[in-house]
Design brief:
Blueprint: E1 3-4, E2 15-17, E3 19-21, E4 24-25, E5 35-42, E6 50-56, E7 59-65, E8 69-74, E9 79-87, E10 90-105, H1 107-112, H2 121-124, E11 132-136, E12 143-148, E13 154-156, E14 158-159, E15 168-172, E16 181-191, E17 194-207, E18 220-226, E19 234-240, E20 243-249, E21 253-257, E22 263-271, E23 274-285, H3 291-296
Parallel strand pairs: 1-23
Antiparallel strand pairs: 2-19, 3-18, 4-18, 5-8, 5-17, 6-7, 6-17, 7-9, 8-9, 9-10, 10-11, 10-12, 11-15, 12-13, 14-16, 15-16, 16-17, 18-21, 19-20, 20-22, 21-22, 22-23
Amino acid sequence: MIAPLQNFNPKRVFFTLLLLLCCSSMVYANGSKNSTNCLAQAADGAGHAVWISKYLNGKDGKFLFQNGGSVQQFEDGTGHITGSIYLPDQSDDEWEIDVWMTDAKDWDAWSATGGGYKGNKDVVGEWYKTWTYYIMDPNKDNRLIGKGKNEGEVLYLHHSPAGYEFAIQVGKAANDKNDKEGLSIWFTYEHDGKLMKGDFNFDLSCEEPTADQPYQHPSAICPAQAAQGAGHAVWISKYKDGKHGKFLFVDGGTVEQYEDGTGHITGTVFLPEHPEDKWEIDVWMTDAKNWEAWSATGGGYKGDKDI
């Protein structure tokens, strides 16, 4: 069980979050902000978020997210998958996911085309009837874009199987690994004249709009890491046995900033010397100001002036 950091302790404690952010403004399909937004992680039990057969020296590549991924599903039946992945045993072996989904169908419509689903029947049960089924958009570039040692390389992905026997499947138990909310994709690409194959297997944590509480999509979303030079993402004074707690992210955090001046910080942190000591961050921000407005209240800032 991962406890919420907001309910840490009835005593007053002092803690800080020191985060390195890599932010991007959000761009929406057809200009629409109405969507379901999901944080993606490697599926439990998979050992990877992205698997590529015989990736390096004949060995399979098992990639993890650097800071979690994003799966957006839009009302027009399209979707977008993004995120940075890396090979744990070669951390500079990095790729950026840029995959577009289209033609969303429910089970009745998908199965009417002759399509099926993929998964362990004992795990999936009847859940496949509730999934959303997409195909990879053939009119867009679906890519793994090289980063780190792969800078300048692009792998162009294609839906697999090419005959659409299986779809990009999204829903409960849809990741082909466990019974959680998830996503799975099968793809191919060409490399050195050879046809290569791979999978995406994600666990998803999604927010959906409701009639009473429409979902406000973030104007900027920032993957968060521990700040370089800090040695921690979250620091808690005299956390245990009089020693300070220096926590790191399990799989990166997320900072969302909204157009109404609010924001939300989420992520799972752990104590490296005690990996089972975990907390879930759930912190809301409000009343955004620029420097002029903030300093007018008597507020200052904290940081090294030389930096």
